[in-house]
Amino acid sequence: MIRWSLYLPEKSLVAGKPSAVDRDIVQVSTRKLSAGAGLEQYFFRVVGWTSFQALHGKDRKLIEVETENTGVGQSAADDGRRQGYDFDLAIIGGGFSGVCTAWHLLTHTGLRPAFRCVIIEPGERLGAGLAYRTDSPYHLLNVRARGMSITAGDSRSFVRWLAEVAPEYSADDFVPRGVYRRYINACLEQAKEQRPPGALTVLQDEVRAVKPEAGSRGYLLRLKAGGAIRARAVVLAVGNLPPSSPLGNGLLCSPWCGSIDYRRIGTLAIVGAGLTALDVILDAEAAGFSGRYWVISRHGLFPRCHREPFLPVPPELREWAGQLAASRPKLRQVLRAFQLQRKSGVHWEPLVDALRSVAPSIWNSFDVADKRLFLRHLRTFWNTHLHRSCERSIQVVTRLMDSGRLEQIHARVTAVEQRQGSCDSAVRLLLRSGTVSTLDVDAAVDGMGLFSNIRKTDSPLVAQLLDDGLVQPDDFCLGLRVTGMGHLLAADGTVRSDMFTVGTLRRGEELECTAVSEIRRQVAAMVNEIVRFMAVATSAESAADPSIEYR
To answer: By CB neighbour count within 10 A (0-12 exposed, 13-18 middle, 19+ buried), where does 82 fall?
Structure first.
């Protein structure tokens, strides 16, 4: 019994039980497929199928077929399917992390020609995670174009692309995030064209579970739309997972749902004051909102503004940060060193940027008590100074505050209640603060950003991986435990050589892992490890079965 995967036009199949037409199409396809494998006769049955969308947007069906060989003369497959793999690598998530991983793989000189990779992304577009799904011209990158290339090895890649495609932007501009999404897709398309056909497949679906296959070194990935695919190795590139609302009643609007008619409401509350809150304010202003904002957060701190004009971090500060990290300092030593630099007249912005480049090393030199102290008392201040916004966005907030239309409330939201009002989204916020106990508004948006506990997200996949012991959370449940090369650690502490992660899920191990500069650094090291793993795995399989040839 052998299982094949076939790719057929969308219109070839109908929903539900396979029809006679379906069976005829599959029968013809299996005959064509088996002819090249030297198999004389097949009986077959359709196991399952699911839709996917290729990079160029053409709909296809992924068909799983079990075939029983009644003849002789079976030959070896050179792409790994004899071991039951549909793909060598499955990248779960098609945001920037997933696209960056695929690009680095497809451009890696050590990758064998027969390598086959799939990106599984539930959204309609690649590169459209929470940050880059927007098409609003008001939603800008919070890093200048000069720092946003898909690889650190070619730092001017994005700037050159802008010169050809969007020459109105310069290297020092904060470019709309929708434009950046076009760039990373163009990079991926170019990399794909340099590889043999079939090197990259894009599947529009959601992975609900990843299960190790019995008697195999690979994984079975179960999909939301039904069916499953098999891969030799897996990369979790899930991006910013949806937090499970701590308020639990779902009355706070998602900042990305687009369900609020801003022209019909007079008051808007935003819970949180970070970059997500800025996006909501810019959206509301562009949509014609003329009412009043309340921005609610414990510290009442908006992101700081980038200094103009742009000045790179001086070499002496990079050297200072490197020496500080090499000394494996405690938290109090880092704070003292920072204060000494400030007293000598150094501006805080280059100091923060210098420390960012060595943040993983410094973070891992802290003991548990230092990490807990930082997370409890300093993380907000660090975030507002590190994850800065451009001057144009901050000017909008400043103008609203000066006009009295925007007011900040230092408080914690303890509950949200539905109330009768002119809008269906009208709510009452119950607050814990020294001055305000309740706040009635026409709509309230959840702008709290990233999840704060990996065990409290709305991701079925993460829940399944944790429940099955395939992964384990870090000490503070900020993400998952991972090695420096991106290998995930199982619940029993063993390193999973064939399961990797990149981006947000590394927060607990590296602290800073959400920006392009950090993700591309992680990806570059991880891809080298993936290529090495693939070479070792295919050599071991060839040794076990000499009839298998890998090109």
So the answer is: middle
User: Helices 348-356 and 331-343 sit at what angle, rounded to 10 degrees?
Assistant: 150
With contact defined as beta carbons under 8 Å apart, do 273 and 411 qualify?
Answer: no
Q: Is the peptide bond before 196 cis (omega within 30 degrees of 0)?
A: no
CA distance 489 to 497: 9
Contact (Cβ atoms closer than 8 angstroms) between residue 484 and residue 274: no
How far apart, in whole angstroms, are the C-alpha atoms of residue 23 and residue 157? 48
Q: What is the pLDDT of residues 410-433, one digit of tens each?
A: 999 999 999 887 788 899 999 988
Q: What span, in angstroms and rounded, lies between the C-alpha atoms of 341 and 337? A: 6
Evaluate the CA torsion angle 168, 174, 180, 183 in order and state its sign: positive
CB 363 within 8 Å of CB 510: yes
DSSP string, 291-312: SEEEEEESS--PPPBPPSS--P
Classify the C-alpha dihedral 165-169-171-175 as positive or negative: negative
Adjacent-strand bridge partners of 305:
389
- What letter would DSSP give residue 253? B
| CB-based contact 16:93 (threshold 8 Å) | no
3-class SS string, 538-550 = HHHHHHHCCCCCC
Q: What pTM, to 2 d.p., does this model score?
A: 0.82
3-state secondary structure 189-228: HHHHHCCCCCCEEEEECCEEEEEECCCCCCEEEEECCCCE
pLDDT digits (tens, 9 = 90+) for 352-396: 999 999 999 999 999 999 999 999 999 999 999 999 999 999 999
**What is the Cα–Cα distance from 209 to 377, expressed in whole angstroms?**
36
Which amino acid is it at 191? Answer: A
Q: What is the 3-state secondary structure (H, E, C) of 319-382?
A: HHHHHHHHCCCCHHHHHHHHHHHHHCCCCHHHHHHHHHCCHHHHHHHCCHHHHHHHHHHHHHHH
- Distance separating alpha carbons of residues 252 and 416, to the nearest angstrom: 8
Q: Within the chain, how many helices (H) and strands (E) appear?
A: 15, 18
Length of the chain: 551
Confirm if 296 and 472 have CB atoms less than 8 A apart: no
Buried b (16+ CB within 10 A) or exposed e, 206-218: bbbbbebeeeebb
* Beta carbons within 8 Å of 288's beta carbon, 6+ residues apart: 262, 263
d(CA 413, CA 98): 34
